[in-house]
Amino acid sequence: MSSLLIAQLAALAGLTVSAAGLAARWREMAWRPAPVDRAPAKGDPARGVLYAFTLGMAPWAKECTRIHAMAYLRGIGFHLAIFVGLVALATRSAWPMLTPMIRDAVAVLLAVGAVLAAAGSAMRLREPNLRALSNPDDHLSIWLVAAFLALTALALWNARFVVPMYLAAGLLFAYIPLGKIRHCLYFFFARRSFGRFAGRRGVLPHPTATFPEGAR
After folding, report:
1. What gap in Å lies between CA 179 and CA 156, rounded to an integer?
2. Are 51 and 41 in contact (CB under 8 A)?
C-alpha cells in the first residue's frame, strides 16, 4: 500500500468522523425545544431570518466590524481561504488540468490564508482581552487550519507535499466535531434563532428611523 493511498484513507477516515460527529450534534440541536416568545408579534420572522443570513452579516450592519475593520477583513480572507482549500482538496485529481497561472493563484490565496490564521493566533496572544478569553482549543483549532492551508498551497507547487496535505486534512476533519471549529454548524442555528426572534419583534430588518419634528 502506497503512502499516498494511506494518506488518502486517513483523510477519508477523518471526514467520516467529522460527518458523524456533526450529524450527532445537528440532531441534538434540532431536537432541543425552541424558547417560546409570548410577546405580541410585531414583524415577520421569515424576513428577520433572511436579513440575518444576508445583509445582517455586512460590515456596515455590525458596530464591531465597523470599529475593527482590519480584524473583519482578516476573518473574511481566512474563511475564504478555508473554502478554497476544501474545494482544492476535493478536486485533487483535476489539478493536472489546471494552468500554471491558476494553480499559482490558488496556492498564493491558500498561503495568505495560512498567514492570516497565524495572525489571528498572534492577536489572541498579544491583545489582553483576547488572551484572557482564549483557551488551548482556540489556538489548536487555528493552527490545524493553518497547517492544512499551508500544506495544500505547497502541494499545489510541489507534489511531495500531497501526502502531508491529506494527513493534515484527516487530522483537521477528525477534530472539527470536538473543538471550536464546530461553530461551522452552530452558526446556522444561531443566525436562524437570532433572525426569527428579532424579525418577530420587528427589530430586523431595521425599520426606517423616524424623528420628531425639529429633532433633525
Report:
1. 28
2. no
Whether residue 111 is predicted with pLDDT greater than 80 in this model: the reply is yes
124, three cell numbers: 489572541
Q: Is the peptide bond before 40 cis (omega within 30 degrees of 0)?
A: no
Do residues 175 and 15 lie in contact, with contact meaning Cβ atoms separated by under 8 Å?
Answer: no
Maximum Cα–Cα distance across the chain: 80
In angstroms, the CA 21 to CA 95 distance is: 30
Q: Identity (one letter) of the amino acid at 97?
A: M
Name residue 63's amino acid. E
Q: Give pLDDT tens digits for 27-48.
A: 887 787 777 777 888 888 888 8
At 104, which helix (H) or strand (E)? Answer: helix 100-126
pLDDT for the residue numbered 124: 85
Is 133 buried (19+), middle (13-18) or exposed (0-12) by CB count in 10 A?
exposed
Q: Which three cell numbers stand for residue 156?
A: 499545489
Helix (H, G, I), strand (E, B) or coil at 130: helix
Q: How far is CA 65 from the centre of its chain?
A: 16
What is the spatial distance between Cα 48 and Cα 202, in angstroms, rounded to a whole number?
8
What end-to-end distance do the CA atoms of the chain give, in Å? 76
Cell output for 52: 440575518
